[in-house]
User: What shape does this take?
Amino acid sequence: MNDIRSRLERIRREIEKLQAQESLLLEMLDETPTPKQTRAVKGSVKTTVLDLLEEVGRSGLNAATAVDLAKEKGIDLERGSVSSLLSRLKTDEVVVYDGNAYRLKKFTEMPGVTPLRTSGDRSF
Assistant: This one.
């Protein structure tokens, strides 16, 4: 059972990497001018994403949502960078991923809150 979970986790990480690559290539193909935005300073991407995760709380977010929320604040984040960061935060056990959204760990460990269950998770 653990072998299956490990394999599933490796596949999910690979999917996230491929999605980030796809996003980057799509951005490179898009030649339409975009409104001038403040690009996130290197190193502040993590701070921005952590702030957004704090802001959304239990509802969580994914890379695309993070990019959209940051854009509303006038901050330009690259989806691939956000996706990669969220994956690293998951590996570092700072966030939890339920198959749809990433949440800060503290929002999944709240008393009286049942953790979200994914179709492949039979541990409950």
